[in-house]
Design the sequence.
């Protein structure tokens, strides 16, 4: 006798088969995680940082200060020959000042040389002179006298120098203080040092003997210029020395 299948049984069997043979579902692939890019700084902050970096670079690359070059610390060395009036300007002698120099001193950069006439050289022994063009009475100069194998007492030397220098006489007469001292160079040569503090002017003088001559180096300045340029003027004063 034929078997009668129930439709529900067929459906049930078909459904079961379909369910058993269905391929497993593949899990969805996850996308790789990408890092979130940092947010850009606000425009004003970025500008500030760039400006700071640029300023740092400029400051690092800036040339060194030239203040030392323009300050009174710049000098040139002068070579003096202490030539007689007959040999003035090299006539009858060696015109190379460096080769025939008897003394040297520093001159502040920018100062001008005053041409010494034969009359000045013959009367008071002035051999060289420089002055500040901004104030011509701020100056340095050197005089020399023949026939001095050694230094006399300090007071006598200063009085003898004043005899041939009217300005020095007036400065001493009106001075608030006059100090005297002496120093020796690296060769043991003695220099007398005078400092005269007058009412309206200041003077520094160095005197020494060599080559049977007396050399006197003067640094003079009105009081306002002395107060302003004191360090420079003292350097110039201390730079004087004889050669040989």
Sequence:
């Amino acid at each position: 006798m034929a078997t009668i299948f129930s439709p529900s049984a067929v459906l049930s069997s078909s459904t079961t088969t379909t369910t058993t043979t269905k391929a497993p579902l593949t899990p969805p692939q996850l996308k790789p995680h990408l890092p979130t890019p940092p947010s850009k700084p606000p425009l004003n902050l970025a500008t500030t940082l760039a400006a700071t970096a640029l300023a740092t670079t400029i400051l690092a690359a800036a040339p060194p200060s030239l203040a030392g070059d323009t300050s009174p610390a710049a000098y040139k060395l002068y070579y003096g020959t202490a030539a007689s009036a007959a040999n003035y300007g090299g006539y009858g002698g060696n015109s190379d000042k460096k080769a025939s120099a008897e003394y040297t001193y520093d001159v502040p950069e920018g100062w001008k040389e005053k041409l010494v006439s034969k009359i000045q050289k013959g009367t008071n022994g002035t051999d060289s002179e420089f002055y500040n063009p901004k104030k011509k009475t701020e100056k340095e100069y050197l005089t020399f006298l023949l026939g001095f194998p050694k230094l006399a007492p300090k007071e006598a030397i200063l009085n003898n120098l004043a005899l041939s220098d009217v300005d020095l006489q007036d400065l001493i007469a009106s001075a608030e203080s006059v100090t005297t001292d002496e120093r020796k160079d690296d060769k043991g040569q003695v220099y007398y040092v005078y400092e005269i503090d007058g009412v309206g002017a200041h003077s520094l003088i160095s005197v020494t003997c060599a080559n049977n001559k007396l050399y006197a180096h003067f640094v003079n300045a009105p009081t306002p210029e002395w107060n302003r340029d004191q360090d420079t003027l003292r350097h110039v004063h201390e730079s004087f020395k004889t050669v040989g």
Notes: Residues 43-61 form the longest helix (19 residues). The radius of gyration is 47 Å.
